[in-house]
Design brief:
The structure holds three protein chains of three kinds. Chain A is built from eleven helices and four strands; from the N terminus they run H-H-H-H-E-E-E-H-H-H-H-E-H-H-H. Chain A is mainly α. Chain A has a two-stranded antiparallel ribbon with strand order 1-4. Chain B is α/β, with parallel strands linked by helices. Chain B has two domains: about 1-80 and about 170-255, 3-Layer(aba) Sandwich (Rossmann fold), CATH 3.40.50.300; about 95-165, no CATH class. Helices cover about 40% and strands about 25% of the residues of chain B. Chain B has ten helices and ten strands. In chain B, the strands form two sheets. A six-stranded mixed sheet of chain B has the order 6-7-8-3-9-10, sandwiched between helices. In chain B, strands 2-1-4-5 form a four-stranded antiparallel sheet, covered by helices on one side. The longest helix of chain B has 20 residues, at about 120-140. Chain C has one domain: ABC transporter involved in vitamin B12 uptake, BtuC, CATH 1.10.3470. Classes of the chains: A mainly alpha, B alpha/beta, C mainly alpha. Chains in contact: A-B, A-C, B-C. The interface of A and C includes residues 236, 285 and 288 of A.
Amino acid sequence: MSEDQLYFFYDLFQYLINGICQGSIYALIALGYTMVYGIIKLINFAHGEFYMIGAFTGYFCIRGGIPLYFAFPIAMLVPGIIAVLIEKIAYKPIRHAGRIPALITALGVSFFFQYFGQNVLGADPKAFPEVYEETIYNLGEAVSISSTQIIIIVTTLVLMLFLRWLVMSTKVGKAMRATSFNKDASELMGIDTDKIISFTFFIGASMAGAAGVLVGIYYNTVEPMMGLIPGLKAFIAAVLGGIGIIPGAVLGGLVLGVVENLVVGFWESTYRDAVSFGILILILLVKPTGILGTKTKEKV
Amino acid sequence: MSAPILHANNITMKFGGLVAVDQLNLKVFKNDLVGIIGPNGAGKTTVFNMITGIYTPSDGEIILEKRNINTERPYAISQLGISRTFQNIRLFKDLSVIDNIRLAGHQGLTYSAMSSIIRSKSFKTAEKKLTEEAIDLLKIFKLENKKDFLAKNLPYGEQRRLEIARALATGPQLLLLDEPAAGMNPNETNELSELIGWLRDYFKIAILLIEHDMGLVMNVCERIYVLDYGKLIAHGTPGEIQNNPKVIEAYLGTEVD
Amino acid sequence: MEYLAHLTLNCGIFIILAVSLNLINGMAGQFSLGHAGFWAIGAYTGAAFSVFSPLPIPDWMNLFIGCGIGGISASIAGILIGIPCLRLRGDYLAIATLGFSEIIRLLIVNMDVVGGPRGFTNIPKWANLGWVYLWVVITILFISNLMKGTHGRAIISIREDEIAAESIGINTFKYKLMAFVIGSGFAGVAGALFAYSQQFIHPNGFNFLWSVIILLMIILGGLGSITGAVIGAVILTLLPEVLRLMGETISQWRMVIYSLLLIMLMLWRPQGLFGKKELNLSALLGRKKS
């Protein structure tokens, strides 16, 4: 193999590592999107804001001296609680009104948090305090992986396995699956669907919150508008993998993260977002139910 | 007997593993008055949906005057001469009674969009004619006095009549009525029976109807198809159907010995 | 005085944007979140014409040609985007149009010939209050007359009940596309007018936020009402100025107020001010309805 070819593979490998890391972030956020859509067919545009709230919670906690292993769960809890409140105040009352009114309300909630945050916290990016000494591991000549990247990938894996266990092996998880399959029938079976829906929002938002803290550590900055683009990307990831399907969110997130990094690496970074939106359009036109989705027919 | 205008030839409809309609053979002839009956869930509305293009048959063919319409879109099938009403009434609720009718007259209008925008003479003449024809149709259904009412403000019985009127406004050769008597009291059902027969004669159309009200079906229909679990279990005149043990069994179950 | 003239001119541009979006979202019931993209196409093509190849004719004639170019370019984009997207269901359509709108904006940012991330400057001031409002009148007359004919009725029937519309022979896809293309075309005209009055355009001025603001205008006014769209556009163009007068701090909270307004409308008055109704002038003047 020539030197050029060798470096091509080194670069590719590095982009894959970066991509899987970025993809893990997208996957964590996408999980919340997909669970909420699965259960009440709502595209919660405001979901990216839970990620932002988690990041800021982590920021304030750590600045306040709370160690990471406490700050992290708190940063998951706070967006979770806020999500439950939002659901009760803004989404539940219009649940019957249809998907478009729900989407519009979610838009309103999303912008509310972004601009409220901007006004209260200031639009400028804040430096996330250093939590631990970062180590870089070199894998061969030109490829490296940082401890933070490892932490992100591992944390995501752990949270995903936890979620899978929760959804597949617990009573609550069964109730969640039942409610997303058929809400009315679940009600008739004695499931308190309102509680289940609240719980779903809680779990989804806490996953996003976790992603927020991880990103704060990884990129060292947080700012109030940080939720908008990752929120959209996570939504693209969820649709790509199959909206409403939990493994789909993970698959979509990883694929999107890797593709984005390949675009930045081998093509032009300015086209990164355009390519992501292009993927969204492509999937919606070719297979709207996503990679892992099935075709369903609407009954008249 | 002449060739049927509609021939559903061994049609089957599958939704995943569920067989909603199973190898049904159905014919409708010119000026026919045919009924489809069967217990709930027998697949009757599914048959209507297949004929009108909302579903594409999983197997078999639907032939409208020698033309296979399996994959045609609903609007094309309407333009080919099949009209329908819906089980749950699908009127344009926030539009006026006369607008519901005028919309059905859409196909007959040939002026271009630009003509309407510049309000040309051809536009005005065409609209005037359309409105007159719409009012004439409403008179037949005794709804012309309420022509400017919003459709949602009509009493239930009149809404059903309006839906039938709208279906006829497209000038079909075959009219599909999905449970037209649903929710009607005995008086209204009687009036409807007379109306259906009269419509067939006046408009010279064929009518295929789904109904649960046995009185109406036996009174009005000349032939009846009986469906159960998606399969055809009997076909014949009202007299034949009433005495058919399979039909009785489907509705009432078998005797307990 | 010039400030008031400029404000009124902006009202006019947003009236065109709101009325044209209303045709798609309100009349046809197709939820598009990408209107800013068509606005951008009209602005940039109109601006490009005026900067790179203006014709040696009086300004007002150039204006009309520029608006035509902007409108037609946006319409063509409307056809290209509409054909794939309008096959999608409700919320998916919204996301797809959002996606396309962002792609358009990102492509513009990468086009240095029209200024890219620095924006497009030195656009001639061809537009004035009079011409803008002439276009406002044209837009309103065009769309309201369209609505009174069979094509407009067909478009509304799609919103009311798509399945019923198909069952009476209306090719719903054709009319969805018609509404989408006409709506995007007028957004393009508004874009050209915008360029010719602001004399400077920037990709950030056509982002997703602006699609949402235009949407808020028609939801406030009433989805499905042309009158509502006009009123909504006027209110939301004047509101920032009113807030500015009330103080710098209040003005900063503009977007927060908008988002709360959006949420409250959806919760308590989703039909907005006018619902689907129009201000019927002949009824007001006492004449009989036909």
